[in-house]
Amino acid sequence: MLLDGDEWRAMLREFQSEAWRLEALPQYLVPQESEELEAFRTGRRIDPHTYSSAYTDDLKRLQGEGKRKGRVHVVTQPLLDYLQFEFSRYYAPHALAGEDIRILDVTNRENPLPGVRDFWMFDRATIVLMHYEDDGTQISRELYAGDPAPFVEYQRIAVAESVPFLEYVKE
Q1: Phi, psi (degrees; rounded to nearest 5) at 139
Q2: Does residue 50 sit in helix, strand or coil?
Q3: Of the N and C termini of the chain, which has fewer Cβ atoms inside 10 Å?
Q4: Nearest to 48 by CA among 21, 87, 83, 79
């Protein structure tokens, strides 16, 4: 089943304990971000310590409810402009607001998750496969009907092999 609109937003809102994502692409082309990405390229930055948005407010609310969001992004150096933008514009303020963002840098090592594509996992039970063109343009989201156990294992490996985002950017 393909997910879009209200069905997709409900998945992000109605999980019971954890929403977790694996990101495996070096860039995601999102039309709504084009102006901000261009501003980033010209040197404009946000202050992640003072930045607030509906997303950061939601992260704080979820934390107060005992729920958590997290992700691991598989990267290789050098980072494309898009990843530098994503780190600055999203990851820094979101990590400070409570999202468990981790980086799995496979630049000088074998990828422990070869061939694993982007997905969301909700409560370690519901999997949504994220489909993208090679350039990072999203095609669709698909509710996975199979056994979630392999995805739980992918999460275990990704978390074990990665470092917290804020630690990664200090290096």
Answers
A1: -100, -50
A2: coil
A3: C
A4: 87
Residue 89 is given by DSSP the state I
Q: Give the rounded distance of the alpha carbon of 129 from its chain centre.
A: 13
Instruction: Please say whether the beta carbons of 75 and 26 come within 8 A.
Output: yes
Q: How big is the CA angle at 55 (ends 103 and 63), to the nearest 5 degrees? A: 75
CA-CA distance, 26 to 3, in Å (whole number)? 23
- Number of Cβ within a 10 Å radius of residue 91: 23
Q: Please indicate, yes or no, whether the overall pTM of this predicted structure exceeds 0.85.
A: yes
Looking up tokens 């979630």, which residue turns up?
Answer: 148
Rounded Cα distance between 47 and 157, Å, is 32
DSSP-H helix ranges across the chain: 5-13, 34-41, 54-64, 81-86, 92-96, 149-161, 165-170
CA dist., res. 171 & res. 164, Å (int): 11
**136, 25, 27, 165: which is closest to 85 by C-alpha?**
27
The one-letter amino acid at 146: G
